[in-house]
Amino acid sequence: MKINRGVALVATTAAVALLASGCSSSDSGSADGGDVELRWIMSADSQAEVDVWEHLADMVHEQYPEITVNFESAPFKDYYNKLTTQAASNDLACIAGLQAQRVPDVGSLFTDLEPSFESTDFDIADYAPSIVEGLQNDDGEQLAVPYDLGPYVLYYNKDMFDAAGLPVPTPGWSKEEFLSAAKTLTTDGKYGFAADGTPDTWLPYVLSIGGDYIADGKPDLTNDKVVEGFTWVTDLVTKEQVAPAPPATGASNWTADQWRSGNVAMYVDGPWQLINAKANVDFTVGLATVPATDGTSITTMSGTGFGVTQGCDHPEEAWKAISVIIGADAQKYIADAGRGFPAYLDAQENWYTTAGVDGAQEAIETALSTVNVYRTTPKWNQLSALMLQYGVEAFSGAKTPAEVLEQVQSQVGN
């Protein structure tokens, strides 16, 4: 699986059209089975993440000395734009990361991996089934093998709670408890919470009141439940004043930056952000579930895997590389590094041990017990980018939440 949460407008139509003529990569190698160099592209928002991916690339070379993997990255907010730009210029890396929510938009850039499994005695059943399914297209083709998954949970600054004399959040805590804590924590230029317009931030509040955001395979942003859930979050800025207004630029990763800098006590994100949090904060990190409505807390989930792109000149070697990158040893390394909650089932306990975060295991297991699989539709990248952009107006009070949702719906709902 942030994800991490800004998104860019993806040129899906151009990418799909390009596939008809065949994408090619700039990976190199000899035709007689000699040494092969492969490019691997994946998002990374910190040097700590880059270090993890480069270590996995080195693991490939250790197991397959004839294969060298050259890693390249882009910030998450730019990653899918870069992917389709590479495709449009016949320069697509042979191995690429694919988030489950992006399958409707860019899944056509990837090949079916299932025929390759037998060549390396690979068993997909060793991985969490929900994210395995999430990385399949409508035809059931396995476009990527997951390395992580995770529900969106509440990150909190334990030091701020302790200083305010507040009990820390616990899984299952209510919206009323959350709001009371946020009000107490909003003082001296600091705020209780940070949110923006991206769906990851506010969809849990729609789902927890029994709402849905898709109807007949299309976005449905203007129904009463979606409006109610989004309004509850924007009210934290405009009415309750326990959260700062997002910047007019609609900057991605702004909520995480506010939390990491100690300006806010809480925000919503996925387990994959733990490595960045622990490397970049000087306070104690805690995790809890998203606040519940009438005892119900339903969050979304995400996850990411790696696949072989269309037109890769060396698909057999690319699969061998991926089989190492998401293999048992690599998954345990990722878990030990805290990079993400591993999709490989036997490595998940490693992540909890490494995390050493108050409430992490209980929060994640509680969230996963009721999690929504976070279905998406074509143009979801565009929808998320527009919500980040136009959502600023709802948080500033320039437009009502319903007006913003209508504006986005009119552009992506048909």
UniProtKB/TrEMBL annotation:
CDD domains: PBP2_TMBP_like (cd13585)
Protein's recorded name: Sugar ABC transporter substrate-binding protein
InterPro entries linked to this entry: Bact_solute-bd_prot1, SBP
Entry keyword annotation includes Transport: yes
Highest taxon of the lineage: Bacteria
Family: Belongs to the bacterial solute-binding protein 1 family.
SUPFAM superfamilies: Periplasmic binding protein-like II (SSF53850)
Subcellular location: Cell envelope
Keywords associated with the record: Signal, Transport
Annotated signal peptide: 1-26
Species this protein is from: Herbiconiux moechotypicola
